[in-house]
Design goal:
single chain, about 250 residues, alpha/beta, Rossmann fold, 7 strands, about 15% strand
């Protein structure tokens, strides 16, 4: 196999949750550019706009509107989605963050964050993973966070969900590696998306963040493209249970 073909996704189908904006949009475009037919899952018509972008660029794409925060709803349609769009690659990217003191969260934020950040990946990994294991091949890529390793500040629900997602990644990697399915994660650093808008709007906090990033800048969704294609392709066939940190050097400080 030549080096370029190691990273080719021609003939494969990739499902990307949260593909309507930010990191998910960037990953969806990258997988499509590598040759995958991409199915975007999200709760707003932004996934339809990204579908159209990919098609206009010469790729293949479809969009499915699903509220990933509705755990019962996701569970109800997960198998149907997997039957309609059997996947070679599943990227669990959709995520929400709610900021505020833990002592003031009566549970609403906690339940919402865990529904999107952990329950949806759990349900979709089971549904799409069944077909992957039957076919003897597949890639699941979970989008973790630097807060899969650190505590953060006033983001207890998000931090806890991302720690748990990392645990799920490792557990499924152990269970499914023998079936030809690799389960890995990407932990983005501070990326300029809607989820980090509040931090970038706070000049003091932004200065603190930039002061710790050796690269000296915020990341962009495109910075994750190579990592996503790598973990979705044959180039990573003997890598599983790994979390690839893409952070401009944050974790090395």
């Amino acid at each position: 196999m030549t080096t370029p073909s190691l990273f080719s996704l021609v003939g494969s189908r990739a499902v990307v949750t949260g593909g309507g904006s930010g990191i998910g949009r960037g990953i969806a475009h990258a997988l499509a550019a590598a040759g995958a037919s991409v199915v975007l899952i999200g709760r707003t018509d932004s996934v339809e706009r990204v579908r159209d972008e990919i098609i206009e660029a010469g790729g293949e794409a479809d969009a499915v509107l699903v509220d990933l925060g509705d755990t019962a709803g996701v569970a109800q349609i997960a198998d149907e989605l997997a039957d309609r769009h059997p996947a070679d690659v599943l990227v669990n990217c959709a995520g929400v963050i709610r900021r505020g003191p833990f002592a003031l969260d009566a549970g609403e934020n906690w339940r919402e964050v865990f529904a999107v950040n952990l329950d949806a990946p759990r349900i979709l990994s089971r549904a799409f993973g069944d077909g992957m294991r039957e076919r003897g091949r597949g890639k699941i890529v979970n989008i973790a966070s630097l807060l899969s390793f650190q505590g953060g500040w006033e983001v207890a629900s998000y931090t806890s969900s991302k720690h748990a997602l990392l645990g799920l990644t490792r557990a499924l990697a152990n269970e499914w590696a023998g079936s030809g399915v690799q389960v890995n994660a990407i932990a983005p650093g501070y990326i300029a998306t809607d989820n980090t808008a509040a931090l970038r709007a706070d000049s003091a906090r932004e200065a603190e963040i930039l002061g710790r990033i050796p690269a000296g800048r915020w990341g962009r969704p495109d910075d994750l493209a190579g990592a996503a294609v790598f973990l979705a392709s044959a180039a990573s066939d003997y890598i599983t249970g790994h979390t690839l940190v893409v952070d401009g050097g944050w974790m090395s400080r």
